[in-house]
């Protein structure tokens, strides 16, 4: 009888062990089928969190690396003026526009200012009216009050399309040549210019 009880106990123990082993294997198999849901900690160097700094070249600074002559320095009223449209100091590109890929081969995209007139004189040839218009439009982008221009001098109306502003004014002046000019000096400028133009026409006859 004792042997019988021991046999039953041994069989029961084996069945329990086998059952537990089967359950463990089943759990392990199920765990392998489940997708991994653990989320990795975000990387500080990932594109989503990395701050990208875009370098913007100062175009005005780029100009001054080549244009270093004293005549290229921005002086006078323009040096301290605040641009009415950008609310910052006036820079090279505000008046001269921007540079192109072939800037060293003529700088066609740059607005250049020079004494120019549509009627030829004995020294100055007749300039392209479109070039004069481009120069003067750059000036009137800021000096945009026609009444003030007329009040300063009636010639602003008469010469707006035939004479560049730079014929009388200077873009980079230490002092504007037209500031404080006397009446007799104004008349002399008019006479000198128109006399020269009449002389050029007479020479062609």
From TrEMBL:
One of its GO terms (cellular component) is periplasmic space. Keywords: Signal. GO terms for molecular function: heme binding. InterPro entries: Cyt_c_NrfB (IPR017564), Cytochrom_c_NrfB-like_dom (IPR053875), Multihaem_cyt_sf (IPR036280), Multiheme_Cytochr_ET (IPR051829). Residues 1-29 form the signal peptide. Residues 92-193 form the Cytochrome c-type protein NrfB-like domain. Pfam families: Cytochrom_c_NrfB-like (PF22678). The keyword Nucleus does not apply. It comes from the Bacteria. PANTHER family: C-TYPE POLYHEME CYTOCHROME OMCC (PTHR35038:SF8), DISSIMILATORY SULFITE REDUCTASE SIRA (PTHR35038). NCBIfam families: cyt_nit_nrfB, PRK11659.1. This is Cytochrome c nitrite reductase pentaheme subunit.
């Amino acid at each position: 009888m004792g042997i019988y009880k021991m046999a039953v106990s041994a069989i029961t123990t084996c069945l329990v062990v086998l059952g537990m082993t089967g359950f463990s294997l089943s759990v392990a198999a199920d765990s392998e089928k489940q997708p991994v849901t653990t989320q990795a900690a975000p990387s500080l160097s990932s594109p989503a969190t990395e701050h990208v700094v875009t370098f913007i070249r100062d175009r005005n600074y780029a100009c001054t690396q080549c244009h270093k002559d004293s005549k290229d320095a921005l002086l006078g009223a323009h040096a301290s003026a605040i641009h009415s449209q950008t609310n910052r100091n006036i820079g090279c590109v505000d008046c001269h526009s921007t540079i192109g890929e072939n800037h060293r081969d003529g700088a066609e995209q740059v607005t250049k200012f020079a004494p120019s007139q549509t009627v030829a004189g004995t020294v100055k040839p007749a300039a392209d009216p479109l070039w004069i218009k481009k120069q003067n439009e750059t000036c009137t982008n800021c000096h945009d009050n026609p009444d003030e221009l007329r009040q300063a001098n009636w010639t602003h109306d008469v010469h707006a399309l035939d004479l560049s502003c730079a014929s009388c004014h200077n873009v980079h002046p230490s002092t504007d040549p037209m500031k404080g000019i006397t009446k007799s000096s104004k008349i002399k400028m008019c006479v000198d210019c128109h006399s020269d133009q009449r002389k050029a026409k007479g020479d062609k006859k």
